[in-house]
Amino acid sequence: MFRRKNPEEAKHYEVLEPASLHVLRTHEHRALGYMRALVSGVERRKDRPEELEEYLRRVREKLAALEQLVSSEYETIRKLLEKEGGTVYYYELRRMEEGDGETRIVVDSGLMVIKDGRIVYRASL
Description:
The chain is of the alpha+beta class.
């Protein structure tokens, strides 16, 4: 409706989608945590250049792998939605799991596609 009522202004928005403040805040919190960890890692190694370079190399490798995973999962979800429909949900999961004589907390977050009350795809990101 905004695009229809304000075509001149709307043409400048590449993306204009409804958003959940909870999801945005969660991602912001996570991104800030990653940045804090990166700065902390650099500060701890700043007086040891070889160790710092190795640390940054590992960070770059992890970022590249994560970018590839996210890109692949988003493309899979996009194709699924085009083909079968459904709704994309962001999820955060925290549950207790028992096995091998011990109990552990499982923590996960990502995206899932739900259609007709069923999870048809889940992407742990």
